[in-house]
Write a structure and sequence with these properties.
The structure is a single chain. The chain is globular and about 65 Å long. It is about 25% helix and about 35% strand. It is of the alpha/beta class. The chain has an eight-stranded mixed beta sheet, with helices on both faces. Strands 9-8-7-10-11-12-13 form a seven-stranded mixed beta sheet, covered by helices on one side. A five-stranded mixed beta barrel has the order 1-2-3-5-4. The protein is built from nine helices and 22 strands. The protein folds into three domains: about 60 residues, OB fold (Dihydrolipoamide Acetyltransferase, E2P); about 220 residues, Vaccinia Virus protein VP39 (Rossmann fold); about 110 residues, OB fold (Dihydrolipoamide Acetyltransferase, E2P) (Beta Barrel), CATH 2.40.50.1070. The model has no long low-confidence stretch (mean pLDDT about 95).
Length: about 450
C-alpha cells in the first residue's frame, strides 16, 4: 500500500494521534500532537481509518526515545515515546474532552493533574500471556490487536521485585507442569514483604499437574511466596504456603494520621501503582470531608482500599462489592485494623441501591470506584438517595462523562476534578470527580 503524509492535530482516547487524510479521520499510534508524520493505512472503515507510523517528519518537542527495545511491538504500553513530564497534562486534556464533549458539562474551576511519582518501575503486579509447552513455552505481551506474542525477560514498568520473579520463574518456565492450556501468568508482589505470589491460569478443565511438581517450581524461586494454580473455578495453592500479601498505606486527614495494613489474597483487585494508590487514598479522604457520625457508602469497594481510610472518621461505613473473595478480604482488613464500624456486603451495586432491606439510613457521602463500564443508572439512583457528596473514582473518562451527565440531570454539579497519572507510559488515566447538590 502507498504511504501518505498527515499532521496530527490531537491525541485521543486509546492513546492514538488523530489526523485527517482527504477529510477522513485517521488514527495513528505512536504519534504526538502537531507532528507531521508519514503513515500507511492498514484498516479502513466508513468513518475513519487506522494507520501505522512509517516515519516522523516533524517531531514534537515532547518526543523522547523509548527505553524498551520492543516498544511499538509489545502491547503492554503505548506512550514511551512521550516525555513523562507531558503525559499527565495530556491525560488531563483527555478527561476534560470527555466531560465537555460527551457529558456536555461545565467544568469546575479547580482541575488538578497529579503526575506520577515514578514514570518507570512502578507496577507491583504484571500479567503475562503464555503460549506453548515444555521447551517451546514462551511468555510476554501480545502485539496490539493480535494474538502474536512478544517474549520478554523484564519490563520497564514493573518494579524490581516483579522483574526478579520474572527472571526466577522464567528459568523454570519449560518445567512448569501442565500442557499448553496454561494461558496466563500473573505476578503480584509486596515490596514490604520482599516476596510475590504467582498465579498460573489454565483453561477450564485443563490438567495442571500435581502439587508436588508445583512445589518444586516454588522452591526453585526464592522470591515467590506461593504459587496459585487456577483452572476455571478450581484453585490449587502449593501446600504449606500462605498466599496473602501485605500492604500498608498512611491515611492523613484533619483528625488523624494512621497507618492501615491490608492483607490481600491472590486474584483480588489492587491498583497496580502502589505509590499513586497512596495519592488516590489521600485525595478521596480530602474530598470526602467525613465528619464523626457520618454514614458513608463505598460502592464497588473491593477489599476496602478506600473503605478503611473513610471508616477512620465515619460513624458507619457500608461497602458493597460483587466479589465474595474481595469482601472476605475487606472484613479481615477491617478487623486487623480495629475498625468495628464497617459492614461489607456481597452483591451488585445496582441491586443494593434499588433495595431497602440492607440499607441503613441516608448516607452523607457516597464513594464509587466502578470498573471501566462505569455505573449505569447512577443519576436516577442518587436522585432518590440524595447524599451530600458523591465521589466518583474513574478509570475511563468516557463512562465518567456519561454518568456525570446523569448526575447533573439529577441535580448535582461537578465541583472538583482530580486527574492522576496512575499508569505512566500508557494512555490509561485515573480521575476523581466530586459532585455536590446544585
Amino acid at each position: 500500500m502507498s504511504s501518505n503524509v498527515i499532521k496530527i492535530s490531537v491525541l485521543v482516547a486509546g492513546g492514538y494521534g488523530l489526523g485527517r487524510l482527504e477529510g477522513k479521520v485517521i488514527f495513528v499510534p505512536g504519534t504526538l500532537r502537531d507532528e507531521v508524520v508519514e503513515i500507511e493505512v492498514i484498516e479502513s472503515k466508513p468513518q475513519h481509518s487506522l494507520a501505522q507510523l512509517i516515519k516522523v517528519i516533524e517531531p514534537s518537542p515532547w518526543r523522547v526515545s523509548p527505553g524498551c527495545p520492543v516498544f511499538g511491538q509489545c502491547g503492554g504500553c503505548q506512550w514511551q515515546h512521550i516525555d513523562p513530564a507531558f503525559q499527565h497534562l495530556i491525560k488531563k486534556d483527555l478527561v476534560i474532552d470527555a466531560l465537555t464533549r460527551i457529558g456536555k458539562l461545565n467544568l469546575p474551576e479547580e482541575i488538578n493533574p497529579t503526575p506520577a511519582a515514578s514514570p518507570r518501575y512502578y507496577r507491583h503486579r504484571l500479567r503475562l500471556q503464555v503460549r506453548g509447552q515444555g521447551e517451546q513455552r514462551r511468555w510476554g505481551f501480545f502485539v496490539p490487536r493480535s494474538h502474536v506474542l512478544i517474549s520478554i525477560t523484564d519490563c520497564l514498568l514493573a518494579n524490581s521485585l516483579v522483574n526478579q520473579i520474572i527472571q526466577e520463574v522464567g528459568q523454570c518456565l519449560p518445567d512448569v507442569p501442565g500442557d499448553d492450556n496454561l494461558k496466563e501468568i500473573e505476578i503480584v508482589s509486596s515490596p514490604e514483604e520482599g516476596l510475590g505470589v504467582v498465579l498460573c491460569r489454565f483453561t477450564p478443565g485443563a490438567r495442571p499437574g500435581n502439587k508436588t511438581a508445583w512445589a518444586r517450581i516454588a522452591d526453585a524461586c526464592p522470591s515467590v511466596k506461593a504459587l496459585v494454580v487456577t483452572t476455571g473455578d478450581q484453585i490449587m495453592i502449593v501446600p504449606g504456603r500462605e498466599a496473602g500479601l501485605r500492604y500498608t498505606f498512611t491515611v492523613k486527614n484533619d483528625q488523624t494520621k494512621k497507618d492501615l495494613t491490608y492483607r490481600l489474597q491472590p486474584g483480588v483487585f489492587t491498583q497496580s501503582n502502589l505509590g499513586m494508590n497512596q495519592e488516590l487514598i489521600n485525595l478521596v479522604v480530602k474530598l470526602a470531608q467525613v465528619r464523626p457520625g457520618d454514614t458513608v457508602w463505598d460502592l464497588f469497594c473491593g477489599a476496602g482500599n478506600l473503605s478503611l481510610p473513610l471508616a477512620l472518621t465515619a460513624g458507619q461505613l457500608t461497602g458493597v462489592e460483587f466479589s465474595p473473595t474481595a469482601i472476605q478480604n475487606a472484613d479481615h482488613n477491617a478487623e486487623i485494623n480495629g475498625l468495628s464500624n464497617c459492614r461489607f456486603l456481597v452483591g451488585r451495586v445496582d441491586k443494593f441501591l434499588a433495595g431497602t432491606r440492607q440499607r441503613t439510613g441516608r448516607p452523607a457521602i457516597v464513594v464509587l470506584d466502578p470498573p471501566r463500564e462505569g455505573a449505569s443508572g447512577l443519576g436516577r439512583q442518587m436522585d432518590k438517595i440524595r447524599p451530600d457528596r458523591i465521589i466518583y473514582v474513574s478509570c475511563n473518562p468516557a463512562t465518567l462523562a456519561r454518568d456525570a451527565a446523569h448526575l447533573h440531570k439529577a441535580g448535582y454539579r461537578l465541583s472538583r476534578l482530580e486527574v492522576l497519572d496512575m499508569f505512566p507510559q500508557t494512555h490509561h488515566v485515573e480521575s476523581i470527580a466530586l459532585f455536590e447538590p446544585s
